């Protein structure tokens, strides 16, 4: 039974999502100590919006990204199917 | 020229079995020299930030290998 191989787009999309997530982490830490930096907050909201779009794109094609209600589920319940993040 | 690399001379004992290393160095991170981060610092793109490990160019610290690599000798 040949395992389904992930397309190249999967990795590109995942890397983009990682990059946006990293920027959000950096900005969150920065904004903790700079609460009134308006440009940074604007940038943070921009990236948060980008992340939502990327997550929606990812989940439409490859299934839920997170659990406990952070992602919609397909039918049947498939969040446990391979590949897991460390197998990708 | 300002550099993040600092040098010191370790004590060399006459009874050291091996040839002494007269000068040693260590690398210091850029945030030591920054103090409170000013707003509006120059940034990398998202993809580059992920690869370099920091969003702001000023904090990029590749922790360079101080010795010439074997290949270049």
Structure, briefly:
Chain A is built from 2 helices and no strands.
Poorly predicted ranges of chain B: none
Contiguous helical run count of chain A: 2
Physical arrangement of strands within the biggest beta sheet of chain B: 1-2
Uncertain regions spanning at least 5 consecutive residues of chain A: none
* Total DSSP E strands of chain B: 2
Overall structural class of chain A, as computed from helix and strand content, comes to mainly alpha
Largest sheet of chain B: 2 strands, antiparallel
What is the subunit organization of this protein?
heterodimer
Q: What radius of gyration of chain A results from the CA coordinates? A: 16 Å
The number of helical runs of chain B is 1
Average predicted confidence as pLDDT of chain A: 91
Q: What order do the SSEs of chain A take from the amino end to the carboxyl end, as H and E?
A: HH
Give the structural class of chain B.
little secondary structure
Span between N and C termini of chain A?
A: 18 Å
The largest interface is: A-B, 16 and 11 residues
What is the strand content of chain B?
5-15%
The sequence of SSEs of chain B as H and E is: EEH
Question: Which range best describes the helical content of chain A: under 10%, 10-25%, 25-40%, 40-55%, 55-70% or over 70%?
Answer: 55-70%
Could you say which overall geometry of chain B the principal axes of the C-alpha atoms support? elongated
């Amino acid at each position: 039974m040949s395992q389904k191989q992930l397309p190249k787009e999967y990795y590109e999309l995942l890397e983009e999502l990682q990059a946006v997530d990293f920027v959000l982490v950096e900005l969150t830490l920065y904004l903790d100590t700079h609460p009134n930096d308006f440009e940074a907050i604007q940038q943070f909201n921009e990236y948060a919006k980008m992340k939502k779009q990327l997550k929606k794109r990812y989940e439409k094609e490859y299934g839920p990204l997170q659990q406990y209600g952070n992602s919609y589920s397909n039918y049947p319940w498939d969040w446990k199917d391979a590949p897991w993040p460390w197998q990708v | 020229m300002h550099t993040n690399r600092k040098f010191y001379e370790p004590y060399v004992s006459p009874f050291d079995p091996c040839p002494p290393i007269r000068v040693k160095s260590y690398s210091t991170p850029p945030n030591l020299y920054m103090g409170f981060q000013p707003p509006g610092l120059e940034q990398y793109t998202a993809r580059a930030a992920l690869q370099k490990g920091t969003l702001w160019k000023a904090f990029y610290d590749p922790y360079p290998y101080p010795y010439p690599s074997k290949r270049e000798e």
